[in-house]
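Example 5.3 — Succinate dehydrogenase [ubiquinone] cytochrome b small subunit
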Amino acid sequence: MSTMQRVLAADTAGKAGLKVHEYASYALAGATPVAVVSSKGSVLQKTADFVFSLAIPVHSHICMNAVVTDYFPKVARGPARLGVLGMSVVTYLGIMKVNLSGPGLTETVRGLWRKPEKAAAAAK
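Solution (predicted structure tokens):
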């Protein structure tokens, strides 16, 4: 099985694929509390953001391939797996864009619970 075949069929690629999924799960479980308690712009927050940038696409790529295996007919699995790979790459690139040219993934998510500055200023 070639490397590309292993990536496309990540859920059935053997023990290595399962280990990668396991490590991505550990990375997400470890980075989440670090992101929650870290201060804005800190090294811990930036580290968590970059862990997320790899772990989220890898974890979701393998899980979505399992969905393809379970629910798609064999004839449609190839195109569906290519679509999953494309979305995994787009997810990685999107998170990296937020991390490198924006506030970072952690601050972006935290912003969902903040009042907009104009509304907070008008309320005073």
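Remark. The chain has one domain: 3-111.
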